[in-house]
Each structure stands twice: as structure tokens, then as C-alpha cells.
Amino acid sequence: GEDVEQSLFLSVREGDSSVINCTYTDSSSTYLYWYKQEPGAGLQLLTYIFSNMDMKQDQRLTVLLNKKDKHLSLRIADTQTGDSAIYFCAAAFSNDYKLSFGAGTTVTVRA
Amino acid sequence: DVKVTQSSRYLVKRTGEKVFLECVQDMDHENMFWYRQDPGLGLRLIYFSYDVKMKEKGDIPEGYSVSREKKERFSLILESASTNQTSMYLCASSSPGQFYGYTFGSGTRLTVV
To answer: Among candidates A74, A88, A96, which has minimal Cα distance to A26?
Structure first.
């Protein structure tokens, strides 16, 4: 199966940009996802990117994919206190309905 | 606009009890999943189902079983609850070929005392 790795913690000042990084092992991964989990809640899909794309932007969120290095990142511009959460990276094959999740990065936004 | 519903947000059970966690989805999804989430360990797959009455073991099935009698409902069963099964349990569903991944429920925080 796919291994997905993320750093566990990130602290960022309100108004700054946050960058959350993720690496995966299998270059055949077709879809890559970022999920957000707020305290006490389930996971909510934030954004996704196909493996034939290098970048995707959605309002304050920018996803960058480096297929050569098998590296995915999520940038949150103008980070707000409401962005404090756990962020999960996930990867899937096109012919496999199972996602492989990273351990999650806990983002703390400080005033 | 609720799409994946887990029957309880918080549950406290005694060691040795049989525990049922219920999950219902209204999106006509074929695939359903049960995960447990523990600090520092991320999400670990317990069981999944890709069709009615079908089930497959995930990474940590020991001590658990599942039931899928109807397409919309996927139940996780703890045959004899133990304290090391205290955790957050997350249900998810998806459809084959669906590129936007899983839809998750809100989770059930189970405490076994």
C-alpha cells in the first residue's frame, strides 16, 4: 500500500502563510487530497488534485504537486484562527477505492 | 444537508460489553469504511465494505466485526469492549471512480471503562 508522511505540528502567526508538507511513496498515485479536521469533528474535504496537475488554487488555498519528488504541499494564505485544525494528506490509485492517509499535521494559529 | 451520520457523538461503555456503532449514508455510495483515530497515529482502517453483505479487513481488524445488510448502513461491532478500544471512530463512504475521495461522518468518541 501507499505510505504517506507528514510532519506532526505547525505553529503559525495569524495573518502569515502556512505551508503543510506531505510525501508519498507510490508514483502511481492518481488523486491526492487534503482534509481538515476541526476539534471533535470528522474530516472535511478541503481540496484535491489530480496527478496530471502541478498546481491548484482555490481562494486562500494553493496545492502544489511535485511528482518527481512525490511531494505535495498545501499553502494557506492569510492564516486565521479558524484555520487551527488537523490537516490530513491522502493519496489514492485510480483503480483502488481505498485512500492512504498521513498521520495529520496539527496547525496552531497564534495571535 | 447531513450525508454520513454516525448514531452517537459520545459513548461510554464498560469492559466486556458488546458495542454497536452505527453509520448511515444517504448518497447511495457503494463503499463504506470504519477508521479509528488516535493521537499521533492518524487514521487506521479497521474494516471496509464495497457492497452489501461484503466486507474486508483493514489494517487493525482484531477485536472488531462489521455488518452491512443494507447499502446505506454499515455497523461496527466491538464483540467484547476493552479499554484499549477507547478511541475516536470515524465512518466514511465513497463511490467507485469518484474523484473527490471520501465523505466522513462526525465521529463517535468511545470511552471504555
So the answer is: A96
Give residue-wise pLDDT tens across range B49-58: 999 999 999 9
Dist. CA A103–CA A86, nearest whole Å = 9
Residue of A2, A27, A45, A24 whose CA lies nearest to B98: A45
Chain A residues 8-47 within an 8 A CB cutoff of chain B: 8, 31, 33, 35, 40-45
Beta-carbon contacts below 8 Å between A and B = 51
User: What does the pLDDT look like over A27-43, one tens digit per residue?
Assistant: 777 789 999 999 888 99
Whether B10 has its CB under 8 Å from any CB of chain A: the answer is: no
Inter-chain residue contact A103 with B40, CB threshold 8 Å: yes
